[in-house]
C-alpha cells in the first residue's frame, strides 16, 4: 500500500521539503534503492547521486540532491516508524486451529488466534493475543491483551504476562530455578514454587529461558518495556527493572537485581545476589562479580570501571616488551656484580 510523503511526514514528526503528493510503497536499501521507495540516510555526508529512491529521510542540513526529503532529528527512529507503516507485521486471523488442544476451563478472548498443535490449559488469554503453532500454555498462566507468542513458546504454571508482550520462538518461561543443596547422599533439590512475571511491552528473543522464583507467592520479574535478546538465561528470583537492554547470550544468576535502564552487552555474565544500578552499562563479555553503581560503565573480567579496564588492557599489550627489558636489566646487573667481585669491590 502506498503512502504520500505528506502523511509520512506526520507519522515521523518531520519537516517535509518537496511535494507532499509523492507516494512511496516501501523502505529501500540506500545502496540499491528503486523508484517508489523511500530511503533513510543516517550519514552526515550527501546522499549518493545514483540513488534511485523517490524520497529520502535525513537529518537537517544533509544534501539530498534536490530529492523530496523528510527532515528528522533521529533517522534510526524514523526507520523504525517507517517499517511499521510500510511493512506491517502480518497478523493471523482470530480463531482456534482444529489441531489445538484447549482445556474446557480456559478463558480465551473471542479474537485470540491459536495456531496449529498449540496446547492451552486452564489459562487466561487476553484480547487480540496470538498464540503460535505448537506453543504450550500451562494451567494457571495469565497472558494479557495484544501479546504475541511465536511458535513453540512454553509458559509454565505460575507465569504471568502483561499486555503487548512479545516472546519469540522456542523460549521457556517458568522452568524450575537451578537450586540444589548438598547432603551426605547427594544433592537435594530445592523445590521452586514461585512464578515469573513479565510486565507490559516487554520483548523476549528466541531460545531464552527465564526461571521461576523459589518461594510461593514470589516472582522472577522483568519490568515494563525491557528488551531481551536471544539465548539469554535469567535465573530464579532475578528482578529486572524497566526499559533495560539485555543482549544475546547473557547469563544472570539467581537473586540479582538489574536497575531501570541498565544495558548488558552480549555474553555478559552476572553472579548471584548482586545489584546492577539503574542506568549502568556493561561491556560485552564482562564478568560481574560485585555490585555496579548507578550510571557506571564497567567492562572486563572481572568487571571494573571501563576506563580502568581499558588502561589495564592497554598495559597488558606492553608486557612482552617489559619482560624483555627486565631480562636485559637482570643480565646487566649480573654483569656489574661479576665485575665488582672481580675488582674486589664489596657489595653495597
Mind sketching the topology for me?
Blueprint: E1 3-4, H1 5-12, E2 15-17, E3 23-24, E4 26-27, E5 37-40, E6 55-58, E7 69-71, H2 75-86, E8 95-96, E9 101-102, E10 107-108, E11 113-114, E12 119-120, E13 124-125, E14 130-131, E15 136-137, E16 142-143, E17 148-149, E18 154-155, E19 159-161, E20 166-167, E21 172-173, E22 180-183, E23 186-189, E24 195-198, E25 203-204, E26 209-210, E27 219-222, E28 227-228, E29 233-234, E30 239-240, E31 245-246, E32 251-252, E33 257-258, E34 263-264, E35 269-270, E36 275-276, E37 281-282, E38 287-288, E39 297-299, E40 304-305, H3 306-316, H4 319-343
Parallel strand pairs: 4-5, 5-6, 6-7, 8-11, 9-12, 10-13, 11-14, 12-15, 13-16, 14-17, 15-18, 16-19, 17-20, 18-21, 19-24, 20-25, 21-26, 24-27, 25-28, 26-29, 27-30, 28-31, 29-32, 30-33, 31-34, 32-35, 33-36, 34-37, 35-38, 37-39
Antiparallel strand pairs: 1-3, 2-7, 22-23, 39-40
Write a structural description:
This protein is an alpha/beta fold. It has three domains: 3-86, Udp-n-acetylmuramoylalanyl-d-glutamate--2,6- Diaminopimelate Ligase, Chain: A, domain 1 (3-Layer(aba) Sandwich), CATH 3.40.1390; 95-307, 3 Solenoid (UDP N-Acetylglucosamine Acyltransferase, domain 1); 318-348. The chain is built from four helices and 40 strands. Strands 8-11-14-17-20-25-28-31-34-37-39-40 form a twelve-stranded mixed β-sheet, with helices on one face. A ten-stranded parallel β-sheet has the order 9-12-15-18-21-26-29-32-35-38, with no helix packed on it. The chain has a nine-stranded parallel β-sheet with strand order 10-13-16-19-24-27-30-33-36, with no helix packed on it. A hairpin with a 4-residue loop joins β39 and β40 (304-305). It is flat. The model has no long low-confidence stretch (mean pLDDT 96).
